[in-house]
Amino acid sequence: MSQTDSLVEEVVEKNPQEKHLSDYRPSDYTISTIDLVFDLFDEKTKVQAISQVERVSESVTPLFLFGEALTLTSLLVDGVNFTDYQLVEDGIVINNLPASFKLEINTEIDPVKNQAFEGLYKSGSAFCTQCEAEGFRRITYYLDRPDVLAKFSTKVIADKSLYPFLLSNGNQVDQGDLENGRHFVSWVDPFPKPAYLFALVAGDFDVLEDNFVTKSGRDVKLALFVDKGNLDKTQHAMVSLKKSMKWDEERFNLEYDLDIYMVVAVDFFNMGAMENKGLNIFNSKYVLANPQSATDQDYLGIEAVIGHEYFHNWTGNRITCRDWFQLSLKEGLTVFRDQEFSSDLGSRSVNRIANVMTLRDHQFAEDAGPMSHPIRPESVMEMNNFYTLTVYEKGSEVIRMMHTLLGEEKFQQGMQLYVERFDGQAVTCDDFVAAMQDASGVDLSLFKRWYSQSGTPQVFVTDHYNSDSQTYQLTFKQKTLPTANQKKKLPLHIPVDIELLDVNGNSIELAPGKTNRVLSLTQKEQTFVFEKITTRPVPCLFRGFSAPVKYQYSYTDEQLLDIMSFATDEFSRWDAGQSLFNKYLIQNVKALNAGKEMTVPIIFIDGFKSILVSETLDPSLISDMFTFTSENGARELFDQVDVDAINKVRGFMLNEISTQLHELFVDTYLRHNQLKAYQPDIDDIAKRKLKNLALSFIARVDKELADKYVTEQIASCNNMTDHLGALNAANIGLLPCRATVMQDFDDKWFENGLVMDKWFVLQASMPSDDVLSHIESLFEHRSFDFNNPNRLRSLVGAFAQTNSYRFHNIDGSGYKFLTDQLIKLNSQNPQVASRLITPLIQFNRLDAARIKLMKAELNRLLALPDLAVDLYEKVTKALAQ
Ligand code: B3K
Ligand code: ZN
Fold first, then answer.
1. In this predicted model, what pLDDT tens digit does every residue of 211-264 receive, in sequence order?
2. Residue of 313, 315, 331 with the most ligand 1 atoms within 8 Å of its CB, for mutation
């Protein structure tokens, strides 16, 4: 059997196969340049691709190029028609090629039919592309792998009146008019890049232009393209872009490299945004904002995502991934960079808390579920399934731990070395760690296990104080439970940042001038001894969440209250509040099941009272202190999850807090409810956040007063944050005004999909037992569009993720509802379907009855004749549990 035959055999295998990191081999061929010509038409776009190809392998092998949903019209080698090829299911095999040649491939594609939004597709009336991870193969046959770097030139041809703007990567080099009302623009990108960074956009837009002078004095043109009529919503994104460029120069010494940086906002997009070289394509959600239509959180989200995509220019684009298993090389690092950006510009503690909430509410569950994988996965069926919280958020935590171990200065030296060594190359996570280690002299050999080991480590802490010798001992035991992908676990290198508080709440000096110390926990069990400790201290552990672990220490209530009041690290103060809440949550679940009374003790209430009245704490931090563990997060606290009890107990505790602190919530609300001109600055954002939090607590127990406040707030507010804050309170408390204020909002905003997404989220998270029938009727709503991923995430996704108690209704209706939607979505947009399925595959310690119901729905999916590989991978892994 020839090699070609075996290739064909492989692709006609019935079930999708896993690819393994250990099977990585460099490509037999490289491509140094590719010249593309696009003749854009709705249903029949012609793509000409002329590549300069070189064989690098010693032996003469056929050339395999990936391709999907393409119609091949001709293939030429060195200008001559060539027929020695076979079309196979996932590409083309070309035989008997010379060692160096020009390959011309002409294909036709159908952008309108493309509802998967991968490759070239239409978003509204504009053409746009999404090529990461493996979308370029839907444009032409190509070596679509990240370690093949070529120089791209792109000529785009289209109707001039419909598509006055024709954009691609790099710099514009030519343009002109053609026959039949068509025109062309040509672009050249001087930086070699993998195909996943290719982009093309054609459309009619409003444009906001600006410029940025880099620190070496180069003038860069900035352009933001949005749908016509949206120019008034572009200012914040542009300001954020300029801040990003400046910040990357100052903190990382990294400068922009092309003459132009373009951002295009589109309405139909599978994720947040894409860092295509010089031509970012964004979900309009992360570009468009004005005070009337965007919340403070939207403003912050835009700043973070604009920053993230910009920072990819170095960490991702100039230095890219050797293979997709290395995704965290660019994503973990770039998330770390965008988190630092947001922290430097805003409140470090508040940003840290938000990131930790994401980990605890969602990433921990992912890491304990059927899709558990290390930040560098070892086997993958569908790459799009691995753009996960683990690769991104835990990946960022791993970078952050290196930052903690090395310190800022050495970390930056490591970054510098990384850039010097690998600029223009496709590299691995090992290469990154090697640069960090070489530049800093810090041994990271054991630390590297974070890249290959999945699961959330548990750290059990005990202590011993000896008053005679005045020594204090902290003993740490680490343990990682087996995960679906990996049974055996090894000890990890865990940095534990600690502070010790004395009886008066003062921090004890642990080294000259230092009140904290970073312990390196590297063994299964390890004890650290502190000398000259004159009284028994209270330990603050994992300051700033110095490692992505679950930790346990038997704190008394008084100790937690001390940390809440006195720790120097604001994160630790917040975390102590969470621990106190969690402690009583666990106790009350036990009490409920034993038929005993639930309690929230007075010491708890008093502790939180002093937080609420604090004049010195940042209002945003106060608000976070009152944002108690979510139902999703709460599940991580139990070995056996009782969905109903958690919902009941959590509700009881929040109501109890509302009742006991009612007057203070009212006072807090009124104190911060001063109307002034809207500014999305950090101080005002914090005040609005606390005010609306107070309103939501009032709405739980004093419906009459809340109803009044909500109605008044909506009538008088001048911004979306306050409008939505009021609606949220009406929703949480199911206030009498709810139906009216929701309808008014709908009437005001029904033409603006992005604004209506907020409304759909509220509808989907309504705490009412008939929420599902309500959601079903909203599929017919004038603003709903099943084909738009944002709408789907807002209605279907929000129900399954945020209304998790009702999603997990023991009658199985939530599971069935989600599955029905996934069946509709499977053939149309499998990538979005595969995101939405997440809560249905996470059985994580649920009861047998629910798991049975969930599995029945997964089996219904598995029986589909055309189940997409994206869903197949998740469904089969879940059913195997
Ligand atoms: N790199 C893209 C994500 C692509 C997702 C493909 N399924 C956005 C980002 O992380 O910046
Ligand atoms: Zn990214």
1. 999 999 999 999 999 999 999 999 999 999 999 999 999 999 999 999 999 999
2. 331
Per-residue pLDDT band at 361 (split at 50, 70, 90): very high
Which of 176, 207, 175, 204 lies closest to 188 in space, CA to CA? 175
- Res. 7: pLDDT tops 60: no
Range of the domain at 537: 458-554
Concatenating the DSSP letter of every residue in 474-532 gives EEEEEE---BTTB-------EEEEEEEE-TTSPBPPSBTTBSEEEEEE-SSEEEEEE--
Taking CA atoms only, the protein residue closest to ligand 1 atom 5 is: 132
Do residue 99 and residue 247 come from a single domain?
no
Tens of pLDDT, residues 302-323: 999 999 999 999 999 999 999 9
118 lines ligand 1 (CB under 6 A): no
Taken in order 697, 700, 702, 704, is the CA torsion positive or negative? positive
Site to probe by mutation for ligand 1, drawn from 269, 274, 829, 870 as the one with most ligand atoms within 8 Å of Cβ, is 274
Q: Which residue has the tokens 């909002």?
A: 745
Judge whether 299 lies within some domain: yes
Q: Which residues are catalytic?
A: 309
Is the Cβ atom of 331 under 6 angstroms away from ligand 1? yes
Which CATH number belongs to the domain containing residue 429 in this structure?
1.10.390.10
Tell me the mean pLDDT in the region 849-860. 98
Q: What is the pLDDT of residues 591-620, one digit of tens each?
A: 999 999 999 999 999 999 999 999 999 999
Ion ligand 2 nearby residues (CB, 5 A): 331, 334
386 lines ligand 1 (CB under 6 A): no
Verify that 48 and 195 share a domain, yes or no.
yes
Nearest-CA residue for ligand 1 atom 9 is 274
Q: How many angstroms does the Cα of residue 728 sit away from the middle of ligand 2?
A: 31
State whether 364 and 498 are in the same domain: no
Residue nearest atom 3 of ligand 1, based on CA coordinates? 274
The conformational region for residue 419 under phi > 0 = left, psi -120 to 50 = alpha, else beta, is: alpha
**Same domain, residue pair 284 and 152:** no
CA torsion through residues 407, 410, 415, 418, sign: negative
Q: What is the pLDDT of residues 490-513, one digit of tens each?
A: 999 999 999 999 999 999 999 999
* Separation CA 32–CA 424 (nearest Å): 13
Per the domain annotation, does 550 fall within a domain?
A: yes
For residue 331, the ligand closest to its alpha carbon is 2
Cβ of residue 393 lying under 6 Å from some atom of ligand 1: no
Q: What is the mean pLDDT of residues 449-458?
A: 98
Residue 742 in this model has a pLDDT that exceeds 90: yes
Quick check: CB of 387 below 6 Å from ligand 1? yes
User: Which ligand has the shortest distance to the CA of 332?
Assistant: 2
Distance 335 CA to ligand 1 centre (A): 11
Q: Is the dihedral of CA 425, 429, 433, 434 positive or negative?
A: negative
Q: Alpha-carbon Rg of the chain, whole angstroms?
A: 28
Answer yes or no: do 40 and 161 share one domain: yes
Q: What is the CATH number of the domain that holds 514?
A: 2.60.40.1840
Same domain, 380 and 435: yes
Domain boundary among 435, 452, 469: 452
Total domain count for the chain? 4
> What pLDDT, on a 0 to 100 scale, did the predictor assign at position 14?
55
Task: Let me know whether 47 and 194 are in one domain.
Answer: yes
Considering the domain architecture, whether residues 435 and 467 belong to the same structural domain is answered as no
Taking the C-alpha atoms of residue 313 and residue 316, their distance in angstroms, rounded to an integer, is 6
Q: Is residue 126 a part of any domain in this protein?
A: yes
Model pTM score: 0.98
Q: Which residues contact 743 (CB under 8 A, 6 or more apart)?
A: none
Judge whether 656 lies within some domain: no
Ligand 1 atom with minimal separation from the 383 CA: 7
pLDDT at 11 over 90: no
Query: Of 167, 184, 204, which one is at a domain's C-terminal end?
Result: 204
The tokens for 698 are 């009032």
For ligand 1, say whether the CB of 271 is within 6 Å of any of its atoms.
yes
Q: What pLDDT, in 10s, does the model give residues 156-177?
A: 999 999 999 999 999 999 999 9
Cβ of 309 less than 6 Å from ligand 1: yes
Spacing, Cα 331 to ligand 2 middle (Å): 5
> Ligand 1: distance of its center to the CA of 317 in Å?
12
Query: What CATH number is attached to the domain comprising 217?
Result: 3.30.2010.30
pLDDT at 433 over 90: yes
Could you tell me if the CB of 157 is within 6 A of ligand 1?
no
Task: Look at residue 459 in the predicted model and tell me its pLDDT.
Answer: 98
